[in-house]
Design goal:
Blueprint (H helix, E strand, L loop, with lengths): L2 H19 L3 H17 L6 H17 L35
Length: 99
């Protein structure tokens, strides 16, 4: 995975984790701007060792603050409406048995 992809993934996961802990989106917005400022502050780091250390530190923070009951969209797997009101399966009639 390239550095750009790793940073993008880390940023998205950070935002989703902050949203799991926020009660309202207007409260989350301030946290999102703070997270963005942290990523912007380290945007010019070019040394691979320093980048790995930053990635590891961020991964540790994500694991430490992982929500015990994360938010799932209602229609997503694990959501409250997942597979509710599915259409009835189309079944072929049983074959006729002759004796």
């Amino acid at each position: 995975m390239s550095t750009k992809q790793a940073v993008s993934s880390l940023y998205r996961r950070s935002l989703k984790l902050a949203l799991d802990w926020s009660v309202h989106r207007y409260l989350w917005r301030g946290q999102a701007m703070y997270i963005r400022s942290l990523f912007e502050a380290n945007k010019n780091v070019k040394d691979p060792r320093q980048q790995r250390a930053l990635f590891q530190e961020a991964e540790d923070l994500l694991e430490k603050w992982k929500h015990p009951d994360p938010y799932h969209a209602p229609t997503a797997p694990g959501g409250s409406k997942f597979e509710r009101n599915l259409p009835a399966p189309i079944l072929d009639p049983p074959p006729h048995i002759t004796m």
